[in-house]
Amino acid sequence: MKDRLEALRREALDRLQTVDDAAALNDLRVHYLGKKGQLTEILRGMGGLTAEERPIIGQVANEVRAAIEEVIAQKQELFDRAETTRRLQAETIDVTLPGKVPAVGAVHPLNKVAQEIEDIFIGMGYSIAEGPEVETDYFNFEALNLPKNHPARDMQDSFYITDEILLRTHTSPVQIRTMKEMNGRTPVKVICPGKVYRRDDDDATHSFMFHQIEGLVIGPNIRMSDLKGTLLQFVREMYGPQMQIRLRPSFFPFTEPSAEVDVTCVRCGGQGCRMCKQTGWIEILGCGMVHPKVLEHGGYDPAEVTGFAFGMGVERIALLKYEIDDIRHFYANDVRFLKQFARM
Fold it and tell me: Which residues, if any, are the signal sequence (predicted)?
């Protein structure tokens, strides 16, 4: 049996020297050392040995196993190194190649401007109030001094769902809801951002859906001068400290007196250009003192408190801020347009 073990060692070592890949090496390992391998087969005959022979043959068998396993381990290490080298060569990175710039997202310009507006007014002590986009006729019109058949309703062609339910045409209903929630308490100092809907044809300056932010302040002795100072502060924080505003008389059913607010042309600085039609001024929003009837609908006594309100289109503010010439750019999802704002 000892001779058979020595012959097995020589045979295994000779064959291991010529093996040239990991799969063949594993096959030889199983052939010689596996549960049904050559070494196991020889050792099954140890039952016929004497007590003196068994430890001698056992020692020789262990030496044969150790010799074969050592060569197998050395070969396996060589094959592993070769495979690692092959993979490294196949996966070599050319560090001289130009890098790939990852696509970086950005806040949409309308959201960015809306956040800036909100931050400015929050810095002045305002809080944010929100309301439903599907509104009742009462909150959208009647509570704002626009009873049925009022001619001013023609100014806001609406999307009606039923005779009494519609998509809101402005965020002013939020003002009424806020006043009712306050239940006559003062001060009220809120801005109301949100989407609004009107039956307009889409063009460079109009859309059937757009964004508004309205403001409302109610308290004792609120004056028109407070309104003007607030809007001047807003304009200067939004467009720069050099900006000026002017108020022109206008009409809104829910404010009296009412005014349109113009701002110094952002392009020419008031010198006159094509953008401002040579006037030096550009209209940006409407405002006024809250109408007494609106105060009454909100649960306030016009004899005790007064208030002012203003409303602006976010798209209008953004068009001027970034000097964009077409409102439809905001909704076209054109990456060439939107990626410009990743750096702002």
Answer: none
Residue whose token pair is 């391998």: 37
Q: What SS3 state is found at 256?
A: strand
Angle of helix 314-322 versus helix 224-239 axis, rounded to 10 = 40
Residue 99 lies in a domain: no
SS3 217: strand
| Domain closes at, from 62, 90, 118 | 90
Q: Is residue 192 part of a domain?
A: yes
- In this structure, are 126 and 217 located in the same domain? yes
> Higher-confidence residue: 162 or 275?
162
- Rounded CA separation 212/302 (Å): 26
Residues 125 and 83 in one domain: no
pLDDT of residue 47: 64
Residues 6+ apart with CB under 8 A from 327: 203, 204, 205, 206, 207, 210, 315, 319
Q: Is 304 annotated in some ligand binding site?
A: no
C-alpha span between 166 and 176 (Å, rounded): 16
CA dist list (Å): 232 to 222, 246, 272, 328: 16, 9, 21, 29
The answer to whether the bond into 257 is cis (omega within 30° of 0) is yes
Look at the block and give the residue holding tokens 């953004």.
318
Q: Would residue 311 count as lying in a domain?
A: yes
Overall domain count for the chain: 2
* CATH code, domain with 231: 3.30.930.10
35-44, 117-126, 157-166, 167-176: segment of lowest average pLDDT: 35-44
pLDDT for the residue numbered 269: 86
Answer whether 191's CB lies under 8 Å from 213's CB: yes
Residue 7 pLDDT class (50, 70, 90 cuts): confident
| Residue 111, CA distances (Å) to 75, 213, 318 in order | 65, 12, 10
Residues 220 and 173 in one domain: yes
Diameter of the chain measured on Cα atoms: 124
Q: CA quadruple 232, 237, 243, 249: dihedral positive or negative?
A: negative
What is d(CA 101, CA 181) in angstroms, rounded to the nearest whole number?
51
